[in-house]
Amino acid sequence: MTSTHALFLGGRSGVGKSTVAFALHDLLSSRNVTHAVVEGDALDLAYPSPWKHQMAEHNLRAIWANYTANGYHRLIYTNTVSVLETDKLAQAIGGDPIVTSILLQASDETTAERLERREQGRSLDEHIDRSARSAGFLDAKSPASVLRVTTDGRTPVDIAEQLVSILGW
User: Fold this and answer.
1) How far is CA 166 from CA 24, 53, 100, 101, 148, in A?
2) Is the CB of residue 100 less than 8 Å from the CB of residue 166?
3) In the chain, % of residues over pLDDT 70
4) For residue 135, what is the domain's CATH number?
5) Contacts of 156 (CB under 8 A, 6+ apart)
6) 85/107 Cα distance (integer angstroms)
7) Cα–Cα distance between 25 and 55 in angstroms, integer?
């Protein structure tokens, strides 16, 4: 039986988590490497917020069970704080997975520029402020075992290539 290898990709809003995950998906697909991408933000996006019920972990468990039943063993999971929650996420996917945690980082200027492409008005201001706060929090709270990868001035494909090299996929 092949072990699960999970990449937990975290970082502030606007750092490029989803964009890099999609570039990594394209790169791996072009190399015929079996994998699955799960956008963690969508696993508990509801109102009122179900986070206190561990909805994201329950949904990840169910989704990953479907993937593993069909032979998948590489998971790319994106979520802002995933690098802080690797133990409970690894428990949710079950078994004894190989875990790689990567915190994407970028400057305030870079993330503000990226956020301007998808947010407007008051929402933009709120996202920029929250992103700046979360950047410091994530950097301070992430364990030393979490790899840091800077996205400033880099293409998603370049970052995806670096991640493939790190992961050995």
Assistant:
1) 12, 34, 9, 10, 11
2) yes
3) 99
4) 3.40.50.300
5) 16, 19, 20, 22, 23
6) 23
7) 25
- Can you give the length of the chain in residues? 169
Please state, in angstroms and rounded to a whole number, the distance separating the CA atoms of residues 88 and 133. 24
Question: What's the rounded Cα separation, in Å, for the pair 94 and 146?
Answer: 20
Handedness of CA 160, 163, 168, 169 (dihedral sign): negative
Determine if the pTM surpasses 0.70: yes
Between vectors from CA 108 to CA 105 and to CA 114, what angle results, nearest 5°?
85
Give kind and range of the element (H or E) at residue 116: helix 108-116
Q: How many whole angstroms separate alpha carbon 3 and alpha carbon 72?
A: 10
* Cβ–Cβ < 8 Å for 98, 86: no
Q: Is the model's pLDDT at 58 over the cut of 80? A: yes
Its domain, for residue 91, covers 5-167
Dig out the tokens for 86 from the structure: 């690797």
Check the CA dihedral 25-71-83-162 and report its sign: negative
CA distance 159 to 104: 10
Instruction: Tell me how many domains the chain contains.
Output: 1
Instruction: Give the lowest-confidence range in 6-10, 46-50, 138-142.
Output: 46-50
